[in-house]
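User: My collaborator sent over this chain with a note saying "see what the structure looks like." That's all I know about it. Can you take a look?
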Amino acid sequence: MSISTRFIGKKILLLSALLMIGMALLPFRVTAGEGSCLESGMTVSNQTMRDLWVTGNGGRCFLWSKHHLLKLKPGAPVVIYRDMNCQTEYCPVSITFDNLILLDLDQNCRVKVLPDCNLSDM
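Assistant: Without extra context I'll predict from the sequence alone. Here is the result:
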């Protein structure tokens, strides 16, 4: 019986070691998606079923057609507007890279803007 006790003890020890290694590597897996998004930027899709207008960093106002994509880099917030004069905001807050990275659950650097400025993973 001592052989089976040692065998079970070794299995428990091996399982514990694998669990510890997995837990140690988890933070690297979580930040891997963010790192790739830092390099490539976040892709934002206009899924609002309407054309919108966008300004970035106080720049000029440009059209963001429905179903089109916008690339957002870190440190470059955008404000989304309903009108072509960029006077009436569509979203109550500016959209930032940091806001979007939190929504990107599958870490593919893609999110979408839905009607009423609901942001979702894509």
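A starting point for your reply to your collaborator: The helical segments are 2-40, 97-103.
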